[in-house]
Amino acid sequence: MYFLFLLIGVCLSSLFYYAPKELTITDEEIINKSIKELHDIDSTNDLNPCLKCKTRLQIAKTLSLTRPDLLPQIFSTWCIESNFNEIQCHMNYGYPTDFFSTQGNDFTKMVSLMNPSGLDGDYFCYYHDTNCNTLPETPLINLSKMWPKKPNSYLPVENSGEVFNVLHLSDINLQIDYRILSESNCSQSLCCSPHCRNKFKCPEFNEFDGYFDSSYSKNHFEKGKSLNNINTKQQSWKPARQFGEYSCDTPSLLLNSTLQCIRDLHQNHLDFEFAIFTGGTVDHSDRCFMSKAKNLQEQETTYRILKHYLDEIDVIPTFGIRDIFPMNQFPQKNINLNLQWQFDFLSDLWQELGWIDVGISKQIRYFQFGYSLITDRGLKIISLNSNIWNFKNLYNYWNITNIDSYGMWKWLINELVDSERNFQRCWIIAHLPPNHQSLPLQANIFAQIIERFSPRVIAAIFFGFTQKDQFIIQYGSDGTDTKSLEKAVNHALIAPSISPYSAVNPSWKYYSVDKQSFSIMNSFTYYTKLGATFGNNGAEPIWEFGYSTRDIYNLENWSDKSLNTEFYHLISDKINQEPEFNLLYQRLENRFTDGDLNNDSYCKITSFTIQAKKQCMITDDQDDYTEPKQQTDNYLTSITVGNDQNVNVDYVPNEKEEIRFDDLDYEGDTYKNDTNIEIINDGKVDLKVEKGKIGKSVNIKRKSNNKIAIDQL
C-alpha cells in the first residue's frame, strides 16, 4: 500500500511543477543587482579603464537581449550614482521621448548588435569613455577591387576661360528660441535662450542700452522700439542683443540680414547660378533642451527663409549631423528603427521649395545616406550624409569591420565610375570633414575613394561644420607620409558659418567656377563684424567684402590657373614656414575676430583624415595630442573588399582577452565663456530623483504597465 501511494505521489509530482521561490526575480531586483554589478566593476583595481568599459558593455549587451526595457533605467541610475552629470546621464541612457534628445533607445540597440569584447568595444570605449585612452590600430583597407583600374593618364579637362558664380552657405544654426535681453554669458549651452542662466549672481544694477525690438516682417529692416527701459524678470551679466552674440547661434534677425545682403548682390551683379548648403540648420543647444518639434521647426524655418530670399536660385543641400532626431543618430536601414519620417520630411520640403525633382526625392527617401543630381551645365553634385563617419553616431559601433553597413560607399563608387565613363566632372558635398569628429576607418575609406577618382572626375569637395573658413589637403596613401606636392591628391574647401557661435564673425562665400572644367577659379568671402552692432544704436549690420583667396595669398605665376590642389599645397608650406602667413590664415579663419593663435594650423590643413591629423600632431611639444596605440592580434589588420567578395569581414576575437564600459562622454558642443559650465534645470526637464546611498539615483520604482517604447529585439 505504501508503494502504491509513493507511485501516485511520483506521478502527481511529474504533472505539476512549482518553480522555487528563490528563482523568481522582480524587475526591481534585476535593476538593483545590475547596478551593483556595474559599481563592482568600477571599484576593482585589477582592470584598466578600457577593460572596465568593455565589461560594462558586456553587461549592457546581456540586458539588451533579455530586458531591453530595463537597460535605460539601469544605466541612467548607475551613471548618476557614479557622480556624473545627472542630466547628461539621462541624455546618454534615458528612455526615448520627443521632448529631449535622449539616446537610451539608440544605446540599447547598439549594444545588442555589437561585439563588446572586440574591435567594436575598443572603438566605442576610446571615443565615449574619457578614461580609456587606448586607440586601436586602424585596419588597412584595400578597395581596389571595387573599381576598374585607374588609367595612367588621368588629368582633368582644361579650363575654358569662362566662369559662372556659385554661392556656398553653411552652418546657419538657426536659434528659434533666441531672446533679446536673455543671458549671453551663461553657464550652460546654449546661451541667449529663455532657459539659460549664469551660475553667479550679476550685480544688482547692471545697466544696458542699445536694445531694440526690430524686425524684417515687411521684407525689409524696420528698427523697432527701444527696450532699454524694459524691466526684465531676471538680471543678466550680458543681455543678448538683437543681431546676435558670439556665444550664441543665429537669431532670425541675423539670418534675414545675411540673406537680404546676398539677394541684393545677386540681383545687382553676382548672378549666382545655384547655391550649395553644407548643412547645419539646428542650433547647438544641449540635448536636454532639444525636442523633436524644435529640431524640425529649425530645419523647416531655415529652408523656408532661404527660399524666400534666394527665390529662383536653386539650393543644393546636404544633411547636417544635428539635423536629425535624436541628434547625431542615424541607424542603418536594416535595423528595426524607422527614421523614414525624417527623410520624407526633408524630401517633401526640398521638393516643395523647387530645389529637387521627384527622382531626387525618391533617392533621398530610399537611400537616406545621400543623393546625386546633374546641373544644367552637366556637373554632377553628390551629397553625402556624414553621420556615417561621425563618432557620435552610436550605430557606427556595431560590426565595425563591415566597412559599408549603410551601402553608401558602394553607391558613391558607382556614381563616380559612371561619371568617369561619361567624361563627367563631379562635386562632393557633405557637412562633417573627415578630419573632425570622425571614425578613422570610415574616414580612410572616403580618402581612398577620393584618391582613386582624382583629379579627373572629382573637381571639388566642400564641407561645413567647423564654423571656420578653411581648407584641407589630401595626400596619397593614408596621409601620414611626407606631404610633398607629388603626393598631393585633392583638397576640400570648408565654408565659414553664418552663426557667430564659438566667437566668429558671421560669413558666407561664393566661387567663380570654370564653365568647362568646373574647377574653382577664385573664392570670395563676405562677413560682418558682429561686435560693431553692439553700439550702433540698433542699425543693421554692415556686410563687408572680406577677401579674394587668389589675391590675398598672391602666389607668383598663378594669374590664369585654377585654385587647385597645388595652389593650396604651396599655401600650406608658407603657413608652416612663415609665422606671418600663419597669422594671416588664422585671422581669415575667424573673419578677423580676436582670438588665441595656435601652432597647429599646418597639421589641420594638411590632414584630410582624423588619423593623419593625429599622427601629424604627435610632437615633442604637443604631448596632449599623443595617443597610445594598441597593436593587437585579436582582429584582422587588413581588409580587402570588392564586387566579388563579401564586404562584411568577420571579427576574430581573442578568447583569452578579458571582456570589460564607462559612461558616455560627450563634449556637449558648449561655448567656453568666462564662467564654469553648468547645466541648469529650469523646470522643463522633469527628471525625478531620489537620494541613494551613493550620490543620487533615479527613482527605480517601476510600474508594471510602463509603456515607454524600447524596441524589442
Automatic annotation (TrEMBL):
The record's section on InterPro entries has: ASMase/PPN1_MPP (IPR041805), Metallo-depent_PP-like (IPR029052)
Q: Which branch of life, at top level?
A: Eukaryota
GO MF assignments: phosphoric diester hydrolase activity
Alphabetized UniProt keyword annotations: Glycoprotein, Hydrolase
Quote the PANTHER family the UniProt record gives.
ACL091CP, SPHINGOMYELIN PHOSPHODIESTERASE
Q: What is this protein called?
A: Sphingomyelin phosphodiesterase
From which organism does this entry originate?
Candida verbasci
